[in-house]
Amino acid sequence: MVRGDPMMFGERTYAPIRYDLLDQLLRVEPSKDGTIEYRPCSVLLRQGELCERVYVMDRDTYVQLGGIWPDPPDGTSALAIENIDWIEDSPHRLTPEIATKIYEAGETGLGYRVFTLLLENGTRLPYSTGRQVDFLELPPGVTSWDIVDVLPHVGREFFQGKGFQPYTHAAPFDWCLYEGEAQGRGRGSRGRRSNWDWGDRW
Predict the structure, then answer these.
(1) CA–CA dist 179, 22 (Å, integer)
(2) Which of 16, 25, 82, 136 could cross-link to 180 by cystine, CB 3.0-4.6 Å?
(3) What's the pTM value of the predicted model, to 2 decimals?
(4) What is the full DSSP assignment across 19-79?
(5) Tens digits of residue pLDDT in 119-160
């Protein structure tokens, strides 16, 4: 499927997002793939569970990606916006500048991207991912703040003739789709202070 194609497996409808959650979501600086904006989030569920690798996106934008809806057996899982109590910037995302540079370079091949991350200490880390690149499996001790640049489409030779290599692929993540905006605050959100104090991260 290519961007703009009809979605497979029929139509889906999703609940609207609360206005306070939308405000939190818009505070997450996006990475950009053309007209598509990704906002990699941490979300707190009403049950108290914290999910730190989540794309929260409106349904109409997701449709532009084409393909299938983010429900099993897609390989990713989908969280219900009705169950979200708080949204924050994810501490596990690539910085918007690095991710956007990868997106702007386009896909290396149909549906995948290859690139090499450059660390501050001179280390090079090759990666091969699907369309989304914001959440990566980084080696122990490495954070996104150690990444100073990226070389799109560089590193394909690393994967030739090799099986699965650790810390060279995207990390598992969830989708959370919404449709429109609802009024009112959800249970437990009134007066809540952020669980994370990132300040002006980017």
Answers:
(1) 11
(2) 16
(3) 0.84
(4) HHHHHHHHTSPPEEETTEEE-EEEEEETTS-EEEEEEEEEHHHHHHH-S--SSTTSSSEEE
(5) 999 999 999 999 999 999 999 999 999 999 999 999 999 988
Q: Where are the domains of the chain?
A: 17-92+173-182, 96-159
| pLDDT above 70: percentage of residues in the chain | 82
Does the pLDDT value for residue 162 go beyond 80?
no
144, 98 Cβ separation under 8 angstroms: yes
Q: Provide the 3-class DSSP secondary structure of residue 146.
A: helix
**Which pair of structure tokens corresponds to residue 188?**
């437990």
State the Cα–Cα distance between residues 70 and 101, nearest whole angstrom. 25
Q: How far apart are CA 138 and CA 190, in angstroms?
A: 35
| Alpha-carbon dihedral 56, 59, 65, 71, rounded to 10 degrees | 70
Among 81, 86, 56, which Cα is nearest to 174's?
56
Q: How far apart are CA 25 and CA 30, in angstroms?
A: 10
Closest Cα to residue 86, out of 141, 125, 58, 47?
Answer: 47
* Mean pLDDT, residues 35-52 taken together: 97
Per-residue pLDDT tens digits for 103-112: 999 999 999 9
